[in-house]
Design brief:
CATH class of chain B: Alpha Beta
Number of strands of chain B: 6
Shape of chain A: globular
Radius of gyration of chain B: 17 Å
Distance between the termini of chain B: 32 Å
CATH architecture of chain B: 3-Layer(aba) Sandwich
Strand content of chain B: 15-25%
CATH superfamily of chain B: NADH Oxidase
Helix content of chain A: 40-55%
Oligomer: heterodimer
Shape of chain B: globular
Number of helices of chain A: 7
Largest sheet of chain A: 4 strands, antiparallel
Helix content of chain B: 25-40%
Number of domains of chain B: 1
Order of helices and strands of chain B: HEHEHEHEHEE
Structural class of chain B: alpha+beta
Distance between the termini of chain A: 33 Å
Radius of gyration of chain A: 17 Å
Number of strands of chain A: 5
Largest sheet of chain B: 5 strands, antiparallel
CATH topology of chain B: NADH Oxidase
Structural class of chain A: alpha+beta
Amino acid sequence: MRRLPSVIFEIIKNRRTIRKYKSQIPPKESINRILDVPYFILKDFSIPFQLVVIQEEARNKAVNIINQTYSIARDLAVLYNIVPDDLKEWYKNFMKEFVRTLGNAPIIIIGLTDLKNNAEYNFKISWIIAQAIMIQAKSEGLDTGSITFSSKTVEEELIRDFLKMDINRWSIAFVLNCGYGDEEPIVKEIKGGIYEIY
Amino acid sequence: MEGKIIYELNRMLINTSKFALKPISREIFENIIKAGLYAPYGLNPPQPWKFIGLISNRAVEISRKLDRISNCLILCFCPKVKDYFNQLTNYGSTFSAIYNFRLQAIAYGIVSEVLVDLNEEFKNFVYKEFRIDSEYELVAVVLFGYPAQKIEPRVINRDVVWRIE
């Protein structure tokens, strides 16, 4: 049996951003554990925070709001540069499909915080939470991927019209897909030399 | 199976400010740092962080300036960029790495504390002491150590909104 530190390292190492999902719904037991994790972190880092889980028809409505902005393809467009030439055409279609469907994950998890007051601190802690969700999901045999976009109009529509929440109080810190992955992601190289020990 | 293991470790991720001064080996410390490097990041710019790990006397000396005594810590830096969205993205990546450090550490039975609100005097000392490029900002210090007392796993109340239709 592998030692615990090795098990944890492998889970962390094998987590990849996934952008295409199967329709299979994850077990409720796994989802419950994933959704508990943010609240362990909030015990130490008290920030305004709300978690919203979206499924089924509500998910489709949210996707139709988010995919109004092409900024969701930002990370994919950057990755395009490292895609081998013979895969570029396939990748273009993959990008288009993602922009249209946001990957078809059966679950979308939205983390909201206050980015009008103490924005940097709240955002930093929100991303500790996001990573905790992604690692817990990976350990449950599930995949995740962040949907990043930078459109104020879309964000406001999502918060005010779809989530029925106060746009003066809440901003989106992260949007995560969650489900069983249906792709082999492009592996990014981890370069050395970016840490030192004294 | 692994889900339950990680869940229990998450319950043990408690900010702890008192550590037993039992040494942490360099090998274990390197593994903790390497776990952080697998946090998600956009490719532009690549790996938007810089980490300096301190062990033994050097760590004790620096941690004393934070009113702590720890023989192992990581100084976490993030590049300053003009675009606000990119700046937040860089913070997001760096703090994801911080979560990985702590999770990997607790798997070794090592507890930790994250300090985010650092005073300017301490930051300026660090920039000078470690000759940090002015493009970088010290965003957090993570202190590590073996627990000085027994850690009780957390119990929480969840507050999640579900939207299905």
